[in-house]
Design a protein that fits this description.
- The protein is of the alpha/beta class and about 325 residues long.
- It has two domains: about 10-205, Rossmann fold (3-Layer(aba) Sandwich), CATH 3.40.50.880; about 225-335, Orthogonal Bundle (Arc Repressor Mutant, subunit A).
- It has 14 helices and eleven strands.
- The radius of gyration is 24 Å and the shape is globular.
- About 35% of the residues are buried.
Length: about 325
Protein backbone atom coordinates (compact mmCIF):
# COMPACT_ATOMS: atom_id res chain seq x y z
CA UNK A 1 0.00 0.00 0.00
CA UNK A 2 1.37 3.41 -0.97
CA UNK A 3 1.87 6.31 1.40
CA UNK A 4 -1.16 8.10 -0.02
CA UNK A 5 -3.39 5.07 0.51
CA UNK A 6 -2.06 4.62 4.05
CA UNK A 7 -2.76 8.27 4.81
CA UNK A 8 -6.29 7.98 3.43
CA UNK A 9 -6.95 4.84 5.48
CA UNK A 10 -5.66 6.50 8.63
CA UNK A 11 -7.83 9.54 7.98
CA UNK A 12 -10.87 7.35 7.37
CA UNK A 13 -10.22 5.44 10.57
CA UNK A 14 -9.83 8.68 12.47
CA UNK A 15 -13.19 9.91 11.20
CA UNK A 16 -14.91 6.72 12.31
CA UNK A 17 -13.79 7.15 15.93
CA UNK A 18 -17.10 8.02 17.48
CA UNK A 19 -16.63 7.15 21.12
CA UNK A 20 -13.85 8.59 23.27
CA UNK A 21 -13.65 7.71 26.95
CA UNK A 22 -11.35 9.14 29.61
CA UNK A 23 -10.82 6.97 32.71
CA UNK A 24 -9.94 8.27 36.15
CA UNK A 25 -8.79 5.48 38.47
CA UNK A 26 -9.07 6.01 42.20
CA UNK A 27 -6.44 4.69 44.54
CA UNK A 28 -7.38 1.08 45.36
CA UNK A 29 -9.82 0.99 42.42
CA UNK A 30 -11.79 -2.14 41.52
CA UNK A 31 -9.97 -3.89 38.69
CA UNK A 32 -12.94 -5.97 37.48
CA UNK A 33 -15.16 -2.91 36.93
CA UNK A 34 -12.45 -1.14 34.94
CA UNK A 35 -11.41 -4.22 32.95
CA UNK A 36 -14.93 -5.20 31.90
CA UNK A 37 -15.77 -1.65 30.83
CA UNK A 38 -12.61 -1.04 28.84
CA UNK A 39 -12.61 -4.51 27.27
CA UNK A 40 -16.17 -3.99 26.05
CA UNK A 41 -14.91 -0.83 24.32
CA UNK A 42 -11.87 -2.64 22.92
CA UNK A 43 -13.86 -5.49 21.44
CA UNK A 44 -16.49 -3.14 20.00
CA UNK A 45 -13.88 -0.88 18.45
CA UNK A 46 -12.70 -3.33 15.81
CA UNK A 47 -13.70 -6.57 14.14
CA UNK A 48 -12.55 -10.12 14.90
CA UNK A 49 -10.79 -9.25 18.17
CA UNK A 50 -8.04 -7.23 16.45
CA UNK A 51 -8.01 -4.63 19.28
CA UNK A 52 -7.70 -1.74 16.84
CA UNK A 53 -9.04 1.61 18.00
CA UNK A 54 -11.19 2.15 14.93
CA UNK A 55 -14.58 3.00 16.41
CA UNK A 56 -13.54 4.00 19.92
CA UNK A 57 -10.57 5.34 21.82
CA UNK A 58 -9.78 5.59 25.51
CA UNK A 59 -7.13 6.97 27.85
CA UNK A 60 -6.32 6.46 31.52
CA UNK A 61 -5.90 9.99 32.84
CA UNK A 62 -3.84 11.00 35.85
CA UNK A 63 -2.24 13.91 37.61
CA UNK A 64 1.03 11.93 37.47
CA UNK A 65 2.28 8.92 35.51
CA UNK A 66 2.81 6.95 38.72
CA UNK A 67 1.31 3.46 38.84
CA UNK A 68 -2.15 3.25 40.39
CA UNK A 69 -2.68 0.19 42.57
CA UNK A 70 -6.03 -1.57 42.42
CA UNK A 71 -7.74 -3.19 45.40
CA UNK A 72 -6.36 -6.59 44.33
CA UNK A 73 -2.80 -5.29 43.99
CA UNK A 74 -2.56 -5.12 40.19
CA UNK A 75 -1.16 -1.78 39.04
CA UNK A 76 -2.15 0.32 36.05
CA UNK A 77 -0.16 3.20 34.57
CA UNK A 78 -1.95 6.35 33.34
CA UNK A 79 -1.57 6.82 29.60
CA UNK A 80 -2.20 10.57 29.56
CA UNK A 81 -1.93 13.65 31.71
CA UNK A 82 -5.10 15.61 32.34
CA UNK A 83 -6.04 17.27 29.07
CA UNK A 84 -9.06 19.27 27.97
CA UNK A 85 -11.98 17.06 29.16
CA UNK A 86 -14.09 18.15 26.21
CA UNK A 87 -11.91 15.85 24.07
CA UNK A 88 -13.91 12.98 25.58
CA UNK A 89 -17.57 12.08 25.30
CA UNK A 90 -17.52 10.61 28.80
CA UNK A 91 -15.25 10.72 31.84
CA UNK A 92 -15.50 7.46 33.80
CA UNK A 93 -14.40 7.43 37.45
CA UNK A 94 -13.56 3.95 38.75
CA UNK A 95 -13.82 3.71 42.53
CA UNK A 96 -12.70 1.02 44.93
CA UNK A 97 -12.34 0.40 48.66
CA UNK A 98 -14.39 2.85 50.72
CA UNK A 99 -12.05 2.73 53.71
CA UNK A 100 -9.20 4.14 51.62
CA UNK A 101 -8.62 7.78 52.57
CA UNK A 102 -8.21 10.38 49.83
CA UNK A 103 -8.92 8.11 46.84
CA UNK A 104 -8.12 10.99 44.46
CA UNK A 105 -5.96 14.09 44.83
CA UNK A 106 -6.99 17.73 44.53
CA UNK A 107 -5.80 18.01 40.93
CA UNK A 108 -8.10 15.13 39.99
CA UNK A 109 -11.02 16.78 41.78
CA UNK A 110 -10.34 19.98 39.86
CA UNK A 111 -10.31 18.04 36.59
CA UNK A 112 -13.72 16.50 37.37
CA UNK A 113 -15.13 19.92 38.19
CA UNK A 114 -13.73 21.24 34.93
CA UNK A 115 -15.34 18.37 33.01
CA UNK A 116 -18.67 19.16 34.63
CA UNK A 117 -18.32 22.86 33.79
CA UNK A 118 -17.75 21.94 30.15
CA UNK A 119 -20.80 19.67 30.06
CA UNK A 120 -18.92 16.39 29.72
CA UNK A 121 -21.01 13.51 31.13
CA UNK A 122 -19.49 11.87 34.19
CA UNK A 123 -19.90 8.20 35.11
CA UNK A 124 -19.09 6.55 38.43
CA UNK A 125 -18.21 2.84 38.25
CA UNK A 126 -18.52 0.78 41.42
CA UNK A 127 -17.81 3.29 44.22
CA UNK A 128 -16.78 5.94 41.72
CA UNK A 129 -20.19 7.47 42.41
CA UNK A 130 -19.00 8.12 45.99
CA UNK A 131 -16.13 10.17 44.57
CA UNK A 132 -18.45 12.18 42.34
CA UNK A 133 -20.78 12.75 45.29
CA UNK A 134 -17.89 13.86 47.50
CA UNK A 135 -16.87 16.44 44.91
CA UNK A 136 -20.47 17.66 44.80
CA UNK A 137 -21.24 16.35 41.34
CA UNK A 138 -24.22 14.06 42.03
CA UNK A 139 -26.73 16.70 43.11
CA UNK A 140 -30.04 16.51 41.22
CA UNK A 141 -29.01 13.09 39.87
CA UNK A 142 -30.11 9.65 40.98
CA UNK A 143 -27.19 7.50 42.05
CA UNK A 144 -27.10 3.74 41.58
CA UNK A 145 -24.90 1.80 44.00
CA UNK A 146 -24.48 -1.83 44.97
CA UNK A 147 -26.70 -3.05 47.80
CA UNK A 148 -23.43 -3.67 49.62
CA UNK A 149 -22.69 0.09 49.68
CA UNK A 150 -26.22 1.47 49.96
CA UNK A 151 -26.16 2.20 53.70
CA UNK A 152 -22.71 3.78 53.50
CA UNK A 153 -23.88 6.11 50.73
CA UNK A 154 -27.01 7.08 52.67
CA UNK A 155 -24.94 7.86 55.76
CA UNK A 156 -22.36 9.93 53.90
CA UNK A 157 -24.72 11.77 51.58
CA UNK A 158 -28.19 11.80 53.20
CA UNK A 159 -29.47 14.54 50.89
CA UNK A 160 -28.72 12.68 47.66
CA UNK A 161 -31.10 10.37 45.79
CA UNK A 162 -29.71 6.83 45.79
CA UNK A 163 -31.05 3.39 44.89
CA UNK A 164 -29.63 -0.13 45.08
CA UNK A 165 -32.20 -2.13 43.15
CA UNK A 166 -30.95 -1.43 39.59
CA UNK A 167 -27.60 -2.44 38.06
CA UNK A 168 -26.84 1.01 36.64
CA UNK A 169 -28.37 4.40 35.93
CA UNK A 170 -27.60 6.77 33.07
CA UNK A 171 -29.16 10.12 32.33
CA UNK A 172 -28.00 12.90 30.04
CA UNK A 173 -25.03 14.06 32.10
CA UNK A 174 -24.46 11.44 34.81
CA UNK A 175 -24.08 7.72 35.09
CA UNK A 176 -23.54 5.37 38.01
CA UNK A 177 -23.06 1.66 38.18
CA UNK A 178 -23.16 -1.02 40.88
CA UNK A 179 -19.87 -2.42 39.56
CA UNK A 180 -18.82 -5.96 38.72
CA UNK A 181 -20.39 -7.40 35.58
CA UNK A 182 -22.81 -4.48 35.28
CA UNK A 183 -19.86 -2.39 34.10
CA UNK A 184 -19.96 -4.35 30.85
CA UNK A 185 -23.71 -3.71 30.57
CA UNK A 186 -23.24 0.04 30.91
CA UNK A 187 -20.35 0.03 28.44
CA UNK A 188 -22.46 -1.99 26.00
CA UNK A 189 -25.19 0.66 26.15
CA UNK A 190 -22.66 3.37 25.23
CA UNK A 191 -21.35 1.24 22.38
CA UNK A 192 -24.85 0.70 21.05
CA UNK A 193 -25.62 4.42 21.23
CA UNK A 194 -22.40 5.75 19.75
CA UNK A 195 -21.13 2.98 17.48
CA UNK A 196 -23.68 0.34 16.48
CA UNK A 197 -25.68 -2.67 17.58
CA UNK A 198 -23.31 -4.83 15.53
CA UNK A 199 -20.31 -3.54 17.49
CA UNK A 200 -22.11 -4.22 20.75
CA UNK A 201 -22.96 -7.75 19.65
CA UNK A 202 -19.35 -8.39 18.61
CA UNK A 203 -18.06 -7.31 22.01
CA UNK A 204 -20.60 -9.31 23.99
CA UNK A 205 -20.06 -12.47 21.95
CA UNK A 206 -16.32 -12.40 22.55
CA UNK A 207 -16.93 -11.73 26.25
CA UNK A 208 -19.31 -14.73 26.32
CA UNK A 209 -22.21 -12.53 27.45
CA UNK A 210 -25.53 -13.69 26.03
CA UNK A 211 -27.32 -10.34 26.25
CA UNK A 212 -26.56 -6.96 27.77
CA UNK A 213 -28.84 -6.00 30.63
CA UNK A 214 -30.54 -2.60 30.71
CA UNK A 215 -30.71 -0.04 33.48
CA UNK A 216 -34.14 -1.45 34.33
CA UNK A 217 -32.65 -4.80 35.31
CA UNK A 218 -32.67 -5.67 38.99
CA UNK A 219 -29.45 -6.18 40.93
CA UNK A 220 -28.86 -9.73 42.10
CA UNK A 221 -29.97 -9.19 45.66
CA UNK A 222 -28.15 -10.10 48.79
CA UNK A 223 -29.69 -13.01 50.69
CA UNK A 224 -32.55 -11.98 52.94
CA UNK A 225 -30.66 -13.12 56.03
CA UNK A 226 -28.12 -10.31 55.60
CA UNK A 227 -30.82 -7.76 56.39
CA UNK A 228 -31.09 -8.92 60.01
CA UNK A 229 -28.71 -8.93 62.98
CA UNK A 230 -30.28 -11.58 65.21
CA UNK A 231 -28.27 -14.81 64.96
CA UNK A 232 -31.38 -17.00 65.33
CA UNK A 233 -33.20 -15.23 62.52
CA UNK A 234 -30.09 -15.45 60.33
CA UNK A 235 -29.72 -19.17 61.01
CA UNK A 236 -33.37 -19.83 60.15
CA UNK A 237 -33.22 -17.75 56.94
CA UNK A 238 -30.01 -19.48 55.82
CA UNK A 239 -31.76 -22.81 56.34
CA UNK A 240 -34.70 -21.55 54.27
CA UNK A 241 -32.30 -20.53 51.48
CA UNK A 242 -30.87 -24.06 51.52
CA UNK A 243 -34.33 -25.65 51.31
CA UNK A 244 -36.22 -23.64 48.69
CA UNK A 245 -37.26 -26.36 46.27
CA UNK A 246 -38.08 -28.95 48.92
CA UNK A 247 -39.57 -26.88 51.73
CA UNK A 248 -39.29 -27.96 55.34
CA UNK A 249 -42.04 -27.44 57.89
CA UNK A 250 -41.85 -24.57 60.38
CA UNK A 251 -41.64 -27.13 63.22
CA UNK A 252 -38.63 -28.84 61.61
CA UNK A 253 -37.07 -25.48 60.76
CA UNK A 254 -37.35 -24.42 64.40
CA UNK A 255 -35.81 -27.70 65.53
CA UNK A 256 -32.92 -27.27 63.06
CA UNK A 257 -31.96 -23.96 64.68
CA UNK A 258 -32.50 -25.18 68.26
CA UNK A 259 -35.83 -23.51 69.00
CA UNK A 260 -39.43 -24.54 69.48
CA UNK A 261 -41.96 -23.41 66.90
CA UNK A 262 -43.43 -20.90 69.37
CA UNK A 263 -39.98 -19.49 70.17
CA UNK A 264 -39.11 -19.20 66.49
CA UNK A 265 -42.34 -17.38 65.69
CA UNK A 266 -41.84 -14.97 68.59
CA UNK A 267 -38.24 -14.22 67.56
CA UNK A 268 -39.25 -13.57 63.95
CA UNK A 269 -42.08 -11.23 64.91
CA UNK A 270 -39.79 -9.29 67.27
CA UNK A 271 -36.65 -9.15 65.13
CA UNK A 272 -37.90 -9.44 61.53
CA UNK A 273 -41.42 -8.05 61.75
CA UNK A 274 -42.93 -11.08 60.03
CA UNK A 275 -43.74 -14.70 60.74
CA UNK A 276 -41.34 -17.49 59.74
CA UNK A 277 -43.90 -18.71 57.20
CA UNK A 278 -44.09 -15.27 55.56
CA UNK A 279 -40.30 -15.00 55.52
CA UNK A 280 -40.07 -18.44 53.90
CA UNK A 281 -42.50 -17.37 51.19
CA UNK A 282 -40.49 -14.21 50.56
CA UNK A 283 -37.26 -16.22 50.21
CA UNK A 284 -38.93 -18.49 47.67
CA UNK A 285 -40.44 -15.58 45.72
CA UNK A 286 -37.10 -13.78 45.50
CA UNK A 287 -35.65 -16.96 44.05
CA UNK A 288 -38.54 -17.09 41.56
CA UNK A 289 -37.98 -13.47 40.51
CA UNK A 290 -34.33 -14.21 39.76
CA UNK A 291 -35.30 -17.20 37.62
CA UNK A 292 -37.92 -15.16 35.75
CA UNK A 293 -35.61 -12.28 34.87
CA UNK A 294 -32.34 -14.12 34.30
CA UNK A 295 -33.33 -17.48 32.77
CA UNK A 296 -35.70 -18.90 30.16
CA UNK A 297 -37.14 -21.47 32.56
CA UNK A 298 -40.83 -22.13 31.95
CA UNK A 299 -43.39 -20.65 34.34
CA UNK A 300 -44.38 -23.97 35.85
CA UNK A 301 -40.72 -24.92 36.34
CA UNK A 302 -40.08 -21.58 38.05
CA UNK A 303 -42.98 -22.27 40.41
CA UNK A 304 -41.76 -25.80 41.22
CA UNK A 305 -38.10 -24.78 41.54
CA UNK A 306 -39.17 -22.11 44.03
CA UNK A 307 -41.09 -24.53 46.23
CA UNK A 308 -44.65 -23.88 45.06
CA UNK A 309 -46.97 -26.79 44.38
CA UNK A 310 -48.76 -25.22 41.41
CA UNK A 311 -48.59 -22.21 39.11
CA UNK A 312 -51.83 -20.58 40.28
CA UNK A 313 -50.76 -20.43 43.94
CA UNK A 314 -47.34 -19.17 42.84
CA UNK A 315 -48.91 -16.42 40.70
CA UNK A 316 -51.18 -15.23 43.54
CA UNK A 317 -48.31 -15.03 46.04
CA UNK A 318 -46.00 -13.38 43.53
CA UNK A 319 -48.48 -10.63 42.63
CA UNK A 320 -49.26 -10.01 46.29
CA UNK A 321 -45.58 -9.27 47.01
CA UNK A 322 -44.46 -7.54 43.81
CA UNK A 323 -47.69 -6.02 42.49
CA UNK A 324 -47.22 -7.71 39.11
CA UNK A 325 -47.73 -11.22 37.81
CA UNK A 326 -44.74 -13.43 36.96
CA UNK A 327 -45.61 -13.07 33.26
CA UNK A 328 -45.54 -9.26 33.52
CA UNK A 329 -42.16 -9.29 35.24
CA UNK A 330 -40.69 -11.59 32.61
CA UNK A 331 -42.17 -9.56 29.75
CA UNK A 332 -40.64 -6.37 31.16
CA UNK A 333 -37.25 -8.09 31.47
CA UNK A 334 -37.38 -9.34 27.88
CA UNK A 335 -38.47 -5.94 26.54
CA UNK A 336 -35.61 -4.06 28.25
Amino acid sequence: MGKRSQTQSAAAAEKTKRLRIGFVLARSFTLSAFALFVDTLRLASDELDRSGRVFADWQVLGSTRHLITSSCGVQVAPTSDFVDPSQFQYIVVVGGLLNFENPIDQQTKDFLLQADAKGVPLIGLCTGSFILAEVGLMKRHQTCVSWLHYQAFRERYPDLDVRSDRIFNLDRTRGSCAGGSSSADLAALLVRRHISKEAERNALEVLQIDKARSQNDIQPRRPLYEEFEDARVKAALITMEQHIEASVSIEKLASMVGLSRRQLERVFLEKAGMSPAKAYTRVRLERARTLLTQTKTSMIEVALDSGFENASHFTRCFKRLYGQTPSQIRAAALAS
